[in-house]
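_Per-residue structure_
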Amino acid sequence: MKKRAPRPSSSSAPRPSSSRPPPSRELPSRESSSRDSPRHGLARALSRRGYCSRSQAEALVRAGRVELNERVVRDPETPTLPQDRIRVDGTDVAAADAVWILLNKPRGYVTTTRDERGRDTVYALIDDAALPWLAPIGRLDKASEGLLLFCNDSAAAARLTAPESHVAKTYHVQVDCLPDEALLTRLREGVDDRGERLAARSVTLLRSGEKNAWLEIVLDEGRNRHIRRLLDAHGIAVLRLIRVAMGGLALGDLAKGKWRRLTAAEVAALTAAAG
């Protein structure tokens, strides 16, 4: 199993796993391949190789700790090619294999690498040396729960979260009222809020109690706090919000705070759903 590189800090540099095969010592011919290969800025390329986050990579580059084809580069936007040789503090950084994981996020965790207010982040739940650097695909706010995906394939992640992909996301939402069919219809039709159109692909009543109910809400786009704002516009408070599926991938019986790797078939189905 691969070892996860420690995250960068101001005092010590992260290093890639020694289990990764070293790259060829031969420097690539940029002229022969630059026309057909995608170019990425150096910081982004370092992040895509599963070494660290893009912001951490930018800091490393500006500090003069990164070499591109045996030359120290200080501009994080310096163009690179996939076959370029990248080193951090003299150690080669090879591309990591694609890794996708599913986390059942509990309440109380923020979806960020670090929080200036000292709150717990989702990275505390996936701190595993066997994982490369992973970025979240979309977000869940601190009070929300459920399915949260991570991967080190930024291109695939961008396709999944792009508005035009219309990948369905399914939520179970406990509300502080007993909605009737007229209210469900209004939620489907949507509202204008702060210059954005907020609507749901579908809204279904799952079950009702004496004072509250559970709804299943499906979105095919995700705006900031989309469901909470949509419901608030109708005077409805959210008691719990749980994402239970994305595309054809379901949260299932994964315990809160636990994660698992996606299978190749699950990854293929997700990326196919994004088009």
Q: What stands out?
A: The two ends are 31 Å apart (CA to CA). Residues 1-7, 9-37 have pLDDT under 50 and may be disordered. DSSP finds seven helices and 17 strands in the chain. The longest strand covers residues 238-246.
